[in-house]
C-alpha cells in the first residue's frame, strides 16, 4: 500500500495544486494600506509594464479571475455575433466552458475541426477559413482559436503556429490563443514569449496562471491594442473588473518576478517527463500521444485503474474510451509523488 499523503495522490488536474509561497507573500503585502480600485492602482499598471517587457512590445492587460472568462471575453472581442470561431473539437472552449464563448459573443458559432494531439489540422483550417465566407446564409468565419499547450498535453511548434496564423491572416481571420498552460508550452519549446504569440500572428492571448502558481488571477494579454477599449467594457459588463484588482496584480507581480512562472512550468513539465519515462518501463502501460508539457495520456489495464482508485489516487479515467487515463502534474508535484504513483502502477500491473 502506498504511504503517499492524500494530496500527493491527486493527478486529475493542475488546478488542484495550491499557490506558490511567493504569491501568498505578495498578496499579504498588498493587504496593508489603501489602493485605488478597479485596476487604477500602481501595481496593476506595473503588471502591464512587466508583461510589455516579457512580450517585447507594448501590450495591454486585463486581469480576470478564470481562464474561461479570459477566453470568452477575448473571443467576444474578435468576432461579431454572426461570426464563427474555428477551434479544435477537443478544445476547452468547445467542451468545457458551458457555452460561455457562444453566450459572450452573443451567439457566434463554434466550428470544431480535427487534428492529432488536439492541434488544428492546417488543411482543415484552410478549408474552414473560407467556407461560405461572405454568404449571408451562413456564419462568417471570423477567428481561429488554438490552445497552447493543447488539452492533450501536446505543444504546437512555432512553425505549426505560424502556418495556422498565416492561413488565418490570408482569410482575414483573427487569431486567439488559449494559453491556460502558456508557461508550460514556453518551457517546452524554449522560445521567447514574443515568438510564440504576436510574432506568429496572435492578436489576443488568454494568459493562464492559476494552473501554474497564482491563486485567483489569469490575464488577457492584448497585442492588437485597438481591441482594448472594447475589452475593458466587456470585462466590466461580465463582472470581471475586480474592485480589489490590486490582489490580482500582486499575484501577477510575484508570478513574473525572478521567472517564477517559468520555473514552476519547467518543474511541472519535468514531473510529467519523469512519469512518462517510468511508465515506459511498465509493459502493461500504453502511452498515448505527445506529452510535451504537463499532461500525459495513457492506456492502463482495468485492474490497474481500479487498484489506483482504491488506494485513493485521483485522475480522469471515464471520459474517453475504457482504459484511457489522464495524469496531470503541476508546480507542486514532487519527484516522490511521481515515484509513488509509478510504484503503485507497477504493483497493480503485477
Ligand atoms: C485548456 C484550458 N483552457 C482554459 C481553461 C480555463 O479554466 P478555468 O475557467 O477553470 O479557469 C482550462 C481549465 O481547465 C483549460 O484546461
DSSP strand content: 5-15%
Number of helices: 14
Bound ligands, named by name, code or SMILES: pyridoxal-5'-phosphate
Largest sheet: 7 strands, mixed
Q: Which runs of at least 5 residues are low in confidence (pLDDT < 50)?
A: none
Strand and helix map with partners:
Blueprint: H1 21-30, H2 42-55, E1 60-64, H3 67-78, E2 83-88, H4 92-95, H5 100-104, E3 109-113, H6 122-130, E4 140-147, H7 158-170, E5 174-179, H8 182-189, H9 193-196, E6 204-207, E7 218-222, H10 228-237, H11 245-256, H12 260-280, E8 286-288, E9 295-299, H13 302-310, E10 324-328, H14 335-349
Parallel strand pairs: 2-3, 2-4, 4-5, 5-6
Antiparallel strand pairs: 1-7, 6-7, 8-9, 9-10
Protein architecture, described:
Its cofactor is pyridoxal 5'-phosphate. With 350 residues, the chain is α/β, with parallel strands linked by helices. It folds into two domains: 6-17 and 261-349, Aspartate Aminotransferase, domain 1, CATH 3.90.1150; 21-259, Aspartate Aminotransferase, domain 2 (3-Layer(aba) Sandwich). It is built from 14 helices and ten strands. It has helices spanning 21-30, 42-55, 67-78, 92-95, 100-104, 122-130, 158-170, 182-189, 193-196, 228-237, 245-256, 260-280, 302-310, 335-349, and strands spanning 60-64, 83-88, 109-113, 140-147, 174-179, 204-207, 218-222, 286-288, 295-299, 324-328. The chain has a seven-stranded mixed sheet, with helices on both faces. The protein has a three-stranded antiparallel sheet with strand order 8-9-10, with helices on one face.
Summarize the structure.
The protein has 350 residues and is of the alpha/beta class.
